[in-house]
Design goal:
Length: about 180
C-alpha cells in the first residue's frame, strides 16, 4: 500500500511538472485580449529589454512634449510592434496600445495584419465602427482590438462624410486591414 501511495505521489508530481513546462512555451506571436506574445497589458516598460532580448528596441520621439513610441524590430531588422506607453518617459509605466506590424502575429482565430474584412466579420463580433477622415475604425471588444480600413473602399456617402455612420454592409469582404491595434488602457 505504501508503494502505491509513493507511486501515486510521484506520478502527481510528474503531471504538475509537465503542465508547468507546457505553460512556459508561450507562442511569441500569439495575440490574446491582454497579451501579444510574451508582452502583457501589465508589463512595465523596463521589462522590454529582457522580453525582447534577441530583438532591437528603438524609442521614437514624437516631438516636443508629446512623448515617444517604442518600436520593436526582430534580429533581421523587420519591424514587429509599435508600443505606446501609458505614461511617457516612465520606465515603470505599462503599455497603453500595441500596433501589430508583422504578419506572424495572429489571434487564435487567425486574424493578422494581412486579414480582410470578411475574416473580421466571420470570426468576431463588431462592437462599433467609427468614421474618421481617412479610415473606418472597427472595434473588436472581444480581443481589446481595433483595426482600420481605408475609406477608399467604403461604399455610400460615408466615404466622404465623417458624420455618416458606416454600416458593415458598406465594407467589401475583400477590404484589407490598414492597421491592427490592441488597446489596453
Amino acid at each position: 500500500m505504501k508503494k502505491l501511495l509513493y507511486f501515486a505521489g510521484f506520478m502527481a508530481i510528474l503531471v504538475v511538472l509537465h503542465s508547468c513546462q507546457q505553460e512556459e512555451k508561450k507562442d511569441p506571436f500569439q495575440i490574446n485580449k491582454n497579451s501579444v506574445g510574451l508582452l502583457t497589458s501589465t508589463t512595465p516598460i523596463k521589462a522590454l529589454d529582457s522580453i525582447f532580448a534577441k530583438d532591437s528596441i528603438v524609442n521614437k520621439d514624437k516631438g516636443f512634449s508629446r512623448g515617444s513610441d517604442i518600436m520593436v524590430y526582430d534580429k533581421n531588422g523587420k519591424e514587429l510592434l509599435l508600443l505606446d506607453p501609458v505614461q511617457n518617459f516612465d520606465s515603470t509605466s505599462t503599455i497603453a496600445n500595441v500596433r501589430i506590424k508583422d504578419e506572424r502575429f495572429a489571434t487564435d482565430k487567425g486574424l493578422t495584419i494581412n486579414s480582410t474584412f470578411k475574416d473580421i466579420s466571420k470570426h468576431y463580433k463588431i462592437a462599433r465602427i467609427e468614421n474618421t477622415l481617412r479610415s473606418a475604425v472597427i472595434f473588436l471588444d472581444e480581443i481589446n482590438a481595433y483595426v482600420t480600413i481605408d475609406k477608399e473602399v467604403i461604399s455610400g456617402s460615408a466615404k466622404y462624410n465623417t458624420d455618416v455612420k458606416i454600416e458593415p454592409s458598406q465594407i467589401p469582404d475583400d477590404a484589407k486591414i490598414k492597421q491592427f491595434w490592441l488597446g489596453w488602457k
